Amino acid sequence: MKFLLFTTPRTGSKYLYSILMPYMMAKYNAASASEYFNFEITNTLKTVDFSYNNTSDIDRLDLYNQELFGKLKNTNKFLFMKIFSMHVSSDVFNYLNDNYVFICLSRRNKLEQLLSFALSNKTLFWDVSNDNDVVKYNSKLSCYNLDKKYIVQGVREIKTYEFLLQYVKNIHTSLVYEDIIMQDPKELLIQLFPDDVDLIKSLTISLPIKQNSGDKFRYFSNRGEIISWFNNANVSPRIVDIANFGRLYH
Fold first, then answer.
1. What is the maximum alpha-carbon separation in the chain?
2. What is the SS3 assignment for 55?
3. Average pLDDT, the chain
4. Dihedrals phi, psi of 124, to nearest 5 degrees
5. Closest alpha carbon to 163 in 65, 238, 69, 52
6. What phi and psi, each to the nearest 5 degrees, are found at residue 107?
7. Which residue(s) pair with 33 in the sheet?
8. Do 168 and 102 contact (CB within 8 A), yes or no?
């Protein structure tokens, strides 16, 4: 069986991935890939215009996506993956949808999620691995005047995720960030895989440091604008060929 952790940024996905990975290894001896289509992690493309207004960057991103997609289909080795909805084309989504069981993760407080996304962009810290990282992260926190693009792009990615969810064929479970961080990791695994209690109890789980900056609003000076942008963001899902989804799944 192949499992896919399907989510958006700043939902605690690394935390959940760290819980699921030991189970997948023990149960299925699963080769895994985290953010397989994220060119920034693989470092193949260092700069891409996320406004998608730059044709050359769009072409480079599309070619890179096709290359990774070809490798994924040909090797067929990843039994457990984490994918952000923002990194998939319709072809990739259709393949994942046909071949993987989805574990879906979202965040209940969407505004808090977008502020976390903005802070990570500002500080360039997407996660912290040790106490030294915590010190460096805290030292970079300041009071920012947030650009509207962070809210608009963030809302678009959340809408893309929600749009794709309606077409997922096989969802094992849907989880929420605010709930999983309150649960004991092994109790969460037992809830997800109740037939493997003994196996789960034997696991060693190493969790990442929780990156908590408290009330994130205090790091932004233009709070009124942010709330207005969030409440009035009129954007569509970031799917170029939405019509193809309708033809395939309706």
1. 53
2. helix
3. 78
4. 65, 20
5. 238
6. -125, 130
7. 81
8. yes
How, if at all, do strands 31-34 and 78-84 pair? Answer: parallel
Report the C-alpha gap between 250 and 244 in whole angstroms: 10
Question: Do residues 211 and 127 touch, judged by C-beta distance below 8 A?
Answer: yes
DSSP 92-133: HHHHHHHH-EEEEEE-S-HHHHHHHHHHHHHH--S-B-SHHH
The token pair at 187 is 């109790």
Q: Find all residues with CB under 8 Å of 64, minimum gap 6, and list them.
A: 39, 44, 45
Indicate the DSSP class of residue 209. Answer: B
Contacts of range 194-199, beta carbons closer than 8 Å, 24 or more positions apart: 196/23, 196/27, 199/23, 199/26, 199/27
Q: In 3D, which of 87, 92, 85 has the Cα closest to residue 61?
A: 87
Q: Which of 70, 74, 1, 76 is nearest to 37 (CA)?
A: 70
Cα–Cα distances (Å) from 96 to 2, 47, 176, 239, in that order, read 10, 26, 21, 16
Provide the token pair at 177: 């960030």
Which helix (H) or strand (E) is 16 found in, with range? helix 13-28
Tens digit of pLDDT for each residue in 94-127? 889 999 999 999 999 998 898 888 887 777 666 6
Query: pLDDT tens digits, residue range 63-103?
Result: 666 777 777 777 666 788 888 887 787 888 888 999 999 99
